[in-house]
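For consistency, the fold was encoded as tokens, which produced the following:
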Amino acid sequence: MRLALPLTLACALGALSSHAKDPALGATTFTVYEAFLSPAQEPGEESETPKLLQKSLGATAPSTPREQRKSRGHGVLRFSKDLTRAYVDVEMTGVNPDDILMFHIHCGPPGVLGPVVVDFGELGNLSKTLANGRWSMELTNANITFVKDMKGMKSGLPESCPAELGFLAQTRTLASLESLARKGVLYFNLHTKAHTYYGEMRGQLYAAQP
């Protein structure tokens, strides 16, 4: 009697046949993350930029307090399940395209300035690209930024954000980028002529809700 239940379970499990999925699904199904960008997510005002960086950043327009800015945005980051490709879709309002200087994905938890891991400025003229407030593009491993300088970065960055000692644990693939997205430590940041240090608006990436 004692052997009856385990034997029954073993037979039932043995009757279940495993079924692997079509490998092609890895390129056509996605894990999706999204962010709603706003000035309120920036961890400081532009007027609080460290003095040593004020000249080098060279803001060319007067800044506006976060609560008074009308800029808003929504961004989607989609990873194919086989992690060979990722896709970015962005829509913005309340921003003059001519004022845009930089647009990045950074690695850092909410309220923390982290290093750039994807630099969209390397992929074309952002003012023209975002002229109509909408933009889409494809990412591969080649678009992941290798950070050489961590000056000014806070300690305690998440695992596989660029390491402060030796840079041995850097994010170098879309697979590691998606891992960081799952931890909630990636964020979009838009920089403009008036808001070059903290940024015009920021959006922390989280798993998209169905």
